């Protein structure tokens, strides 16, 4: 297994909901910002439908605030929300257009996103929003360098990213050594306090976060690191 390329300066991490990035990928983000790289976040939704018993009008602003605080823990200062409805992301041209616009605005060499396959494991379906976001994003990376697909984006200069890295539970082609970033990744996830308290009220938030990060940053076969985040890497632009 190869190390994920790090000969770049700007990355854009794209996710469907607040907290998606913190389930492992934020550990890699912490490594990259430690190297002085410019990493930015784009969230398709505000996660407003994600907290049982809390109406979307209250949940959305809360989850945006938690995400900005969580990003700051790993050195990310720019977080953008696209305003698509949580739980109702639709794979297609509208989402592709908004993601392509974000790519043109931020101009990343590397685009990063989470797993968007149909299931995490046998009997464990992935979120409909994750599936729609990931599939639309791969198309949007190509769209961002095409002047004809979204003519309404003509005011934004075309941009070709070099790679897309997709976090994956298995089938990794590349990995990032995050041995030194585990504690910051735990702190970043723990910032989603209200969400985690409702998700598992019996377990302290910091303990939940530690368990999750230890699960999502294991040692990987064929990669020399005590803790790692695995990715499937796609190359664009020749």
Automatic annotation (TrEMBL):
Keywords, comma-separated and alphabetical: Hydrolase, Zinc
Keyword Glycoprotein: no
GO molecular function terms attached to this record: hydrolase activity
EC number: 3.5.1.-
Gene3D superfamilies, sorted: LmbE-like (3.40.50.10320)
UniProt keyword annotation of Hydrolase present: yes
PANTHER family found in the cross-reference section: LMBE FAMILY PROTEIN, N-ACETYLGLUCOSAMINYL-PHOSPHATIDYLINOSITOL DE-N-ACETYLASE-RELATED
Protein name per the record: PIG-L deacetylase family protein
Species in which this protein is naturally found: Georgenia alba
Record lineage: Bacteria, Bacillati, Actinomycetota, Actinomycetes, Micrococcales
